[in-house]
Specification:
Elements lengths: L3 E14 L5 E6 L4 E3 L4 E13 L3 E11 L2 E12 L3 E13 L3 E9 L5 E10 L7
Parallel strand pairs: 3-9
Antiparallel strand pairs: 1-2, 1-4, 4-7, 5-6, 5-8, 8-9
């Protein structure tokens, strides 16, 4: 059975493929995800660089975990005609209910979760006085 794994990943607002085949990434998060107010829905792209060790059809899953609890995910099949790697942008809508930590994970069906990136979530909204 051929294997596929995420070499690295990042989160951005949008990802597009140009007519020449190049990928364009817009609004990459480089640190905290800072929200103007919480709760709210966050529409993002989880961009994974996936590498496989041979041609095949791969059953895969990506998940988003908030403080260890699964809150969003996507699954499906990826088809590769050759060995190597490529960028795979995965659209996701994530419910953000409070400050904390988001962990983005990837796995091939039947395999263990692989942590790809962890990002803290904070807000710029003023907090009520205590």
């Amino acid at each position: 059975m051929a294997n596929i794994r995420a070499s690295f990943g990042f989160v951005c607002d949008d990802a597009r493929q140009e007519t020449n085949g190049k990928m364009m990434f817009i609004g990459a998060f480089s640190g905290d995800i800072v929200m103007p107010e919480i709760p709210q829905q966050l529409a993002i792209r989880l961009v994974l660089y996936l590498e496989n060790d041979g041609p095949g059809t791969y059953e895969v899953e990506a998940g988003v975990f908030y403080e260890g609890k699964a809150i969003a995910g996507a699954s499906g099949q990826l088809q590769s005609t050759k060995m190597g790697g490529s960028f795979v942008p995965i659209p996701m809508i994530i419910p953000i209910n409070g400050p904390g930590t988001l962990t983005f994970k990837f796995r091939q069906a039947g395999k263990r979760w692989q942590t790809v990136i962890t990002l803290p979530v904070s807000t710029t909204a003023s907090q009520p006085p205590s």
